[in-house]
Every structure is written in C-alpha cells, then in structure tokens.
Please model this.
Amino acid sequence: MSKEALIIFAKNPELGEVKTRLAKAVGDEAALDIYYQLLAYTQEQTAKAQIDLIVYYTTHIDEKDNWINTQKKLQCDGDLGNKMAQAISSELEKYEKVCIIGTDCAQLKSFHIQGAFQKLEEHDIVIGPANDGGYYLLGMKSFEPSLFEGIDWSTDKVFSQTIKAISLLNRNYAQLPELIDVDTIEDWNKVQENFK
Model:
C-alpha cells in the first residue's frame, strides 16, 4: 500500500442528477454525456498518478464501471463539507498524505496531482483554486475539521473561506494553479477542445 491516497468524489452517472446547472443550457441527456466525458478524463489522468485511488460514490457502489485498480466506497450523509470531512479523516487513519478531487475539472492533469503530493512534503495543506471560486483539489497530512465547517458550499466563497480557515489554524499551505471546473456551458466551451 502506498503512503499516499487520492480520494475521488464521483456522482453516479444518472440522467437528471449530474451537471444540473449545465443541463439548463444543454438538456439532461447532453449534460449526462458531458459528465461521462469528464469521468473518463478523470479516470485517465488519475490512473497515471501512480498512487492509491479511492472512489467515493454518491448513491451506490458500481462494480461494473470503468474505474480500474481503485478502492470503492460510499459517501456519508450530510452536506459536501461533512462528506469530505468524513472521507478525508477516514483515509488519514491509513495514509500519511491524502488529497481529494471531484470529477468536474477538465484541466486537471496527473502532474498536478503528483505535484500536490510533493508540496505536502514541505506544507501542511495543499489547495487548487477553481475558476468558480471553489477548489478542485484539497490535500493534507493531518485532519483539520475546521476546513469543512462554516463554508458556503457550492458558492464563489468556498476557496476564500477555506484559505481564511487555514490561516486561523496557523498552518502553511501551497497553492496549485487555477483551473476550470465545468459547471456551466461557458466553462464547457472553454475546455471541450481537450475532448476532441
């Protein structure tokens, strides 16, 4: 077993349940198709990272999906902060370094992931800001519950509130480059060249 683990939060691909903001512009079926493309891209990039991969599903564990060489688990109940906190704290009982990502970042490459773990050699926390004011990656060596409390999830305040929480802990952090999370048709138009 590696000393490093990457948690991947993945929604089960179900019509009308994924990319709901994007679906308002393109329809549920097109949004599901885009989500499948984002899933495949995330699978490809994470497989190159050569670390332990743990997929956390939203509704059920799918043994017949395309994730290869991954542990598969279920997200707990509660808001996004509660779900992430539970997953990270659980995995830090077994691993020295843990990072978490979603499946929405169409610019995330394996070298970003590997770089995040390298930055944890000299920093307590690593974070990758997304263009929408959130973050696409968060990593740490010891569990910090306050990073998941009092955050306005799914808003443009997530990154800034998390940075403030880190500073209140007197922890040092490394910041990755800003990348695009695909939430809207504008986001998709900026990144879909990656998928042709």
User: Anything to note?
Assistant: DSSP finds six helices and seven strands in the chain. The two ends are 36 Å apart (CA to CA). The helical segments are 20-26, 28-47, 80-91, 110-119, 158-168, 185-191.
